[in-house]
C-alpha cells in the first residue's frame, strides 16, 4: 500500500492505473490550457500569516452548505465520465462522501444513473444539470432527480458550447473506449481497471441512454450529445428550470461580477465561482483571482462557493479566508478514485481535511468561521489592474 501524503501522490497513482484517455480527460483544459494551469498556480501567490502563542485546542472545521451540515466546507463537484475512472465510480464517490459527511454532486454526463446512485446510498445527493435543447428530456431528468431524493440542483451555466480539449480529440475519447490498437495496448497495462469494467454493466451514460428520445444505444448517443447542449440558455430558460425544479438551486460557472449580481438577484441559494476547471474559456482569469471582486459584490446575498484549482486543504483555507462560504473539488477526488477507488476518494478527503485543520491552527484560528483576509498575505496586484 503506497504512503499517501498529498493529492499529488494520488495523481501519480491515477496516471499509472487508469487508461490514458480517461486520465487525460480529467487532467486537461481547453486550447492552450493557460486557465487550467493558472487555476492552480494563482493559489501559490497567496501567502499565509503564521500566528503563535494562541490556544489551538478544540478546533472545528465543520459548517453548513445551503443548510446541509458538513464536516468541512467541501463538496464533491460534478465530473462527467466518473464511472470511467473506476468501475461504478459515481457510486464509489457518493459512498465515500456520505461516510465522510460532505455533499456529492452527480453529473448529467455520469456513467452511473441517478437511480443507480440513489439505490446504493442513503444520504441525499445533489444533481447537476446540463441544459439540453430537448426540453422534454430536461423535464424528465429533473423529475427523476426529485424522485430519487436529490436535495439540490446544480445548474451549470458555462457549457452552452463545448470548449475544445485537444487531448480528448487525439485520444478518441468515448465511453466505453473504442477498441483501437493503441487503446487496447494501453488498457493491457491497466489490469485492475479492466477487471473492474468487466465486472460492471455500467459502461455508458446512464442518465441518457434509454431516457432521451432516439437514444437507445451507444451508436445513437454521440450524435445526440453533439447536437444537444443548448446555446440559447438564458435567464428566461434558467427561470423555467428553477420553477420546474422547485427546490434549492445552485448556479455554477459564474466568473464575472455582473453575472454574480444577476444570479444573486435571481434568488440562487448559492453561486459557484468557477471556470469549469479551465475546460471552457481558455484565457479567462482563474477562479481564485475572480473571487474577491465577486465577494465584494454579493456577499450576504447568496452563498459563494469556489471551484477550480483546489489541490489541498491550504487552497480551501485561502478560498474561505478570501470570503467564500464553501468550496467544490473535482480533480482532487478524481485522482483518488482513479488511484484507489472508493478508498482513494476517502483518502483525498482525509488529506484535505488534515491540511485544512493543521493550517488553520498554525494561522491562529480554532473555528473555520473566523477565517478572513487577516489570515492571508495577498499581493497588491493579485486581482490585476485591467483596462
Automatic annotation (TrEMBL):
<keyword id="KW-0288">FMN</keyword>
<dbReference type="InterPro" id="IPR012133">
    <property type="entry name" value="Alpha-hydoxy_acid_DH_FMN"/>
</dbReference>
<feature type="binding site">
    <location>
        <position position="130"/>
    </location>
    <ligand>
        <name>FMN</name>
    </ligand>
</feature>
<dbReference type="InterPro" id="IPR037396">
    <property type="entry name" value="FMN_HAD"/>
</dbReference>
<feature type="binding site">
    <location>
        <position position="107"/>
    </location>
    <ligand>
        <name>FMN</name>
    </ligand>
</feature>
<protein>
    <submittedName>
        <fullName>L-lactate dehydrogenase (Cytochrome)</fullName>
    </submittedName>
</protein>
<feature type="binding site">
    <location>
        <begin position="330"/>
        <end position="331"/>
    </location>
    <ligand>
        <name>FMN</name>
    </ligand>
</feature>
<feature type="domain" description="FMN hydroxy acid dehydrogenase">
    <location>
        <begin position="1"/>
        <end position="381"/>
    </location>
</feature>
<dbReference type="GO" id="GO:0005886">
    <property type="term" value="C:plasma membrane"/>
</dbReference>
<dbReference type="GO" id="GO:0010181">
    <property type="term" value="F:FMN binding"/>
</dbReference>
<comment type="similarity">
    <text>Belongs to the FMN-dependent alpha-hydroxy acid dehydrogenase family.</text>
</comment>
<feature type="binding site">
    <location>
        <position position="276"/>
    </location>
    <ligand>
        <name>glyoxylate</name>
    </ligand>
</feature>
<dbReference type="InterPro" id="IPR013785">
    <property type="entry name" value="Aldolase_TIM"/>
</dbReference>
<feature type="binding site">
    <location>
        <position position="156"/>
    </location>
    <ligand>
        <name>FMN</name>
    </ligand>
</feature>
<feature type="binding site">
    <location>
        <position position="165"/>
    </location>
    <ligand>
        <name>glyoxylate</name>
    </ligand>
</feature>
<keyword id="KW-0560">Oxidoreductase</keyword>
<feature type="binding site">
    <location>
        <position position="25"/>
    </location>
    <ligand>
        <name>glyoxylate</name>
    </ligand>
</feature>
<feature type="binding site">
    <location>
        <position position="128"/>
    </location>
    <ligand>
        <name>FMN</name>
    </ligand>
</feature>
<keyword id="KW-0285">Flavoprotein</keyword>
<dbReference type="InterPro" id="IPR000262">
    <property type="entry name" value="FMN-dep_DH"/>
</dbReference>
<feature type="binding site">
    <location>
        <position position="274"/>
    </location>
    <ligand>
        <name>FMN</name>
    </ligand>
</feature>
<feature type="active site" description="Proton acceptor">
    <location>
        <position position="276"/>
    </location>
</feature>
<feature type="binding site">
    <location>
        <begin position="307"/>
        <end position="311"/>
    </location>
    <ligand>
        <name>FMN</name>
    </ligand>
</feature>
<dbReference type="Pfam" id="PF01070">
    <property type="entry name" value="FMN_dh"/>
</dbReference>
<dbReference type="InterPro" id="IPR008259">
    <property type="entry name" value="FMN_hydac_DH_AS"/>
</dbReference>
<dbReference type="GO" id="GO:0009060">
    <property type="term" value="P:aerobic respiration"/>
</dbReference>
<dbReference type="GO" id="GO:0004459">
    <property type="term" value="F:L-lactate dehydrogenase (NAD+) activity"/>
</dbReference>
<feature type="binding site">
    <location>
        <position position="252"/>
    </location>
    <ligand>
        <name>FMN</name>
    </ligand>
</feature>
<feature type="binding site">
    <location>
        <begin position="78"/>
        <end position="80"/>
    </location>
    <ligand>
        <name>FMN</name>
    </ligand>
</feature>
<feature type="binding site">
    <location>
        <position position="279"/>
    </location>
    <ligand>
        <name>glyoxylate</name>
    </ligand>
</feature>
Amino acid at each position: 500500500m503506497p504512503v499517501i501524503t498529498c493529492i499529488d501522490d494520488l495523481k501519480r497513482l491515477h496516471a499509472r492505473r487508469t487508461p490514458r484517455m480517461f486520465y487525460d480527460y480529467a487532467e486537461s483544459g481547453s486550447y492552450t490550457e493557460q486557465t487550467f494551469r493558472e487555476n492552480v498556480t494563482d493559489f501559490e501567490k497567496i501567502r499565509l500569516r503564521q500566528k503563535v502563542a494562541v490556544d489551538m485546542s478544540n478546533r472545528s472545521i465543520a459548517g453548513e452548505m445551503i443548510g446541509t451540515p458538513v464536516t468541512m466546507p467541501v463538496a464533491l463537484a460534478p465530473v462527467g465520465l466518473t464511472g470511467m475512472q473506476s468501475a461504478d465510480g459515481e457510486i464509489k464517490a457518493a459512498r465515500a462522501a456520505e461516510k465522510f459527511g460532505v455533499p456529492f454532486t452527480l453529473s448529467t454526463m455520469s456513467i452511473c444513473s441517478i437511480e443507480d446512485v440513489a439505490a446504493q446510498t442513503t444520504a441525499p445527493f445533489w444533481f447537476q444539470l446540463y441544459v439540453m435543447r430537448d426540453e422534454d428530456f430536461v423535464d424528465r431528468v429533473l423529475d427523476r432527480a426529485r424522485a430519487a431524493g436529490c436535495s439540490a440542483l446544480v445548474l451549470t451555466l458555462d457549457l452552452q458550447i463545448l470548449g475544445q480539449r485537444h487531448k480528448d480529440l487525439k485520444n478518441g475519447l468515448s465511453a466505453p473506449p473504442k477498441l483501437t490498437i493503441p487503446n487496447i495496448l494501453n488498457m493491457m497495462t491497466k489490469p485492475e481497471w479492466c477487471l473492474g469494467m468487466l465486472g460492471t454493466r455500467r459502461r455508458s451514460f446512464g442518465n441518457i441512454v434509454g431516457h432521451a428520445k432516439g437514444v437507445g444505444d451507444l451508436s445513437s448517443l454521440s450524435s445526440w450529445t453533439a447536437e444537444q447542449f443548448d446555446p440559447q440558455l438564458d435567464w428566461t430558460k434558467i427561470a423555467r428550470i428553477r420553477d420546474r425544479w422547485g427546490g434549492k438551486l445552485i448556479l455554477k460557472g459564474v466568473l464575472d461580477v455582473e453575472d454574480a449580481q444577476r444570479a444573486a438577484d435571481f434568488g440562487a441559494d448559492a453561486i459557484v465561482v468557477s471556470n469549469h476547471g479551465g475546460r471552457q474559456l481558455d484565457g479567462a482569469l482563474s477562479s481564485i483571482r475572480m473571487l474577491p471582486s465577486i465577494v465584494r459584490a454579493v456577499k450576504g446575498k447568496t452563498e459563494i462557493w469556489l471551484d477550480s484549482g483546489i489541490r489541498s486543504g491550504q487552497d480551501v483555507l485561502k478560498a474561505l479566508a478570501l470570503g467564500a462560504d464553501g468550496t467544490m473539488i473535482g480533480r482532487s477526488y478524481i485522482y483518488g478514485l482513479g488511484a484507489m477507488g472508493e478508498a482513494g476518494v476517502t483518502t483525498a478527503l482525509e488529506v484535505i481535511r488534515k491540511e485544512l485543520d493543521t493550517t488553520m491552527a498554525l494561522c491562529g484560528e480554532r473555528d473555520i468561521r473566523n477565517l478572513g483576509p487577516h489570515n492571508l498575505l495577498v499581493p497588491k496586484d493579485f486581482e490585476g489592474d485591467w483596462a
